[in-house]
User: What shape does this take?
Amino acid sequence: MARPKTQYVCVNCGAVWPRWQGRCDACGEWNTLQEEGPAAPASTAAGRGNVVMLRPLSGKTESPPRLTSGIAELDRVTGGGFVPASALLVGGDPGIGKSTLLLQAAASLARDGRHVIYVSGEEAIDQVRLRAERLGVVDAPVQLAAETHIEDILATLKTGPKVDVVIVDSIQTMWTDLAESAPGTVTQVRLASQNLIRLAKSTGAVVILVGHVTKDGQIAGPRVVEHMVDAVLYFEGDAGHRFRLLRAVKNRFGPASEIGVFEMAGDGLREVANPSDLFIGERDAISPGTAIFAGMEGTRPLLVEVQALVSQSSLATPRRAVVGWDPNRLAMLLAVLEARCGLRFGQFDVYLNVAGGLRIAEPAADLAIAAALISSRTGVATPPDSIYFGEVSLSGTIRAVAQSQQRLKEAEKLGFRKAFLPEAGSEDTVTGLALDKIATLADMVAAFAARAQEQSGRDRNHQ
Assistant: This one.
């Protein structure tokens, strides 16, 4: 009898290899291949399939119905609520608040008349009840189960009344009889996810899967699970701080990169109605090295403080430390400041931080980062009540960015009076703020230098 063949799956990219190797040639990552049992043989017999109905591309389309969770920030991230017959994957570090948020959402949905089942594979029923007592939701008609066997879970869901929402915490603890490997392996995670997603599509229930994350911050298990589900949400933030960010990195029924902001309190997660106040509320407008960036997270304008510290270095190779931004983009920006503006950083350590634990990936932050760097380097504080946004090119010109009007309106609402923005693409901007349109990065460096001369002149007069 022939020995069944095994294959190895990369947990980073999902590539399949016939034998183990230290490095995945598809994505270049090391030690990411995990053994997977033999796949079931595919049937090649003709006439076994069913005829699929083909439809024209044109026709009426309707927005999918939504199940609102009663938590406004969660509904914002999901695109307006949960879509029936959809599957969501929620990931985050241990203790970040995944189970807390989902239990609060389950209680809110159950109070609204929805049939909600919470399946815990990590905690006993009593532990879930203790958390519900702490959150004040013990009176909600949520049904609980402590089970890890997928076949038993599916049988329970199919035999009872129609289920509206199923929460599985977590998918790495589930196991099925179709595979002999241990729970949490590639095969078990994939098969368990497939069975639960098939349940969602066939019954119309919303299935929410909780996923562990690796040390790199990625959801553990094969990346193909992220491709299988309809939405992937990540919890971000430090467990030692009280603020949490819920970010949508994939959403088939709404905008991606949308964020929701929460505050961890004794009675659970509370929504932060105005997150811009959170990220700029404790800023120091007098000290040099800070600037306010008017960014966009999905459809939401968000003001955040960026902080830079440029100090004389005693090292042969100066340090470059970045928190919340791309280090490669910082290196590019420093090179532009040196080559195009004559501002030297070669003998200085550079530290950059985004306040509030937020991570910025938008190129529009270039101008705000540059302003903070120039401010720290020259010792001149940025103008108070001012915001910055714009992309810096390698030639030193400031490129236009999208959604300028929304950024300016958010700044005006929070009491800012001046905006530094690209000269290009801002002709149609109408706002109550004073607009300072910048064509090149050298123009902003010259403005800081002029203010530095004025400041030194005032200091000499006082002496």
Summary: Residues 41-46 have pLDDT under 50 and may be disordered. Residues 119 and 145 are 5 Å apart (CA to CA). Residues 441-462 form the longest helix (22 residues).
